[in-house]
Specification:
This protein has 4 helices and 5 strands, in the order αβαββααββ. The protein starts with 5 loop residues before the first helix and ends in a 9-residue tail after the last strand. The protein has a 5-stranded mixed beta sheet with strand order 1-2-3-5-4, with helices on one face. Helix 2 packs antiparallel against helix 4. The radius of gyration is 15 Å and the shape is globular. It is of the alpha+beta class and about 140 residues long.
């Protein structure tokens, strides 16, 4: 993540999941010509890890798409899956730290975290939108 950036890190994460042969993960990246700030890259990566690991555990998904899009002002992470929908309030009020951790990381990059899900209906979407913060990364 630190050496090669967010796209390479998410691709490597997806490859590890695909190697386990339970869930198929696709990745799409648009407009990521420059590196994001370190805090944005780490936050987006950790949110992706948390969300994907939980949907593998709980949603019975067989396919996941991770899309990261950058335009001139904003970075958007969208994760879609074909898993079973759930009661969002139960996630938000749960005793685990996953939801709180994802929200903390979204807040750290001044981002909004949204989830679109319907209980007992397949298909979930999680989106994080944040203002773009780029920084110059000096490679040795």
């Amino acid at each position: 993540l630190i050496k090669h950036g967010i796209s390479a890190a998410i691709n490597e994460f997806a490859a590890r999941i695909n190697a386990a042969d339970q869930v198929h993960v696709e990745t799409d990246f648009f407009g990521l010509e420059e590196r994001l700030s370190e805090v944005q890259e780490i936050s987006i990566y950790r949110i992706t890890q948390e969300w994907v690991n939980n949907l593998i555990k709980y949603s019975d998904a067989s396919k996941v798409t991770i899309q990261l899009t950058q335009d001139e002002n904003e970075i958007t992470l969208m994760i879609e899956d074909n898993g079973m929908g759930f009661e969002l309030e139960l996630l938000k009020s749960g005793t685990g730290n996953g939801w709180r951790n994802m929200n903390s990381r979204a807040n750290l990059i001044k981002g909004d975290l949204e989830v679109d899900t319907t209980p007992r209906i397949r298909g979930n979407t999680m989106i994080v939108n944040a203002s773009l913060i780029t920084e110059v990364v000096h490679q040795p």
